[in-house]
Write a structure and sequence with these properties.
With about 130 residues, the protein is of the alpha/beta class. The chain has a single domain (about 10-120), classed as Response regulator (Rossmann fold, 3-Layer(aba) Sandwich), CATH 3.40.50.2300. The protein has helices spanning about 20-30, 40-50, 65-75, 95-100, 115-120, and strands at about 1-5, 10-15, 35-40, 55-60, 80-85, 105-110, 120-125. The strands form two sheets. A five-stranded parallel sheet has the order 3-2-4-5-6, sandwiched between helices. The chain is globular and about 30 Å long. The N and C termini lie close together (about 10 Å). Mean pLDDT is about 90; it is low at about 1-5.
Length: about 130
């Protein structure tokens, strides 16, 4: 099995659940992607100011700031950054956010890792060990 990634080199994960951050860090780290992580939207914006990322993956429900509002801020301040929202809950306004480009992809929790990887442009080929 070989893994190929289209130009994603650095991903910022934003979730207040440490177990989610750890699982996603492991998944992406195995694919030669630099993974930065933040437990809050405020800290994530500081990370982005210091170190631009190709993709931001944010949870919807976080203390003090919802992920959709956070991704709106990211879209304004860092328009070249791809934005993925994940949630285990219904997200009011997600259809409009997807339609207007505020959010590029929406991933329902529990996360299907193959779906998330495909949103990052990572293709998995079975039977090819090169």
């Amino acid at each position: 099995m070989t893994l190929r990634s289209s130009h994603v080199r650095r991903v910022l994960l934003v979730d207040d659940e440490a177990s989610i951050l750890l699982a996603l860090r492991r998944l992406l780290g195995k694919r030669s992607i630099e993974v930065l992580a933040s437990p809050s939207a405020a800290a994530a914006l500081q990370i982005l100011d210091a170190s631009p990322c190709d993709v931001v993956i944010a949870d919807y429900r976080m203390p003090g700031h919802d992920g959709l509002s956070f991704l709106r801020t990211v879209a304004t301040r860092f328009p070249a950054t791809r934005r993925i929202l994940m949630s285990g809950y219904r997200v009011p306004g997600i259809e409009q956010a997807l339609a207007d480009g505020t959010v590029h992809h929406y991933v329902q929790k529990p996360i299907e890792m193959g779906e998330l990887l495909s949103h990052l442009g990572i293709r998995i080929h079975f039977g090819d060990d090169r």
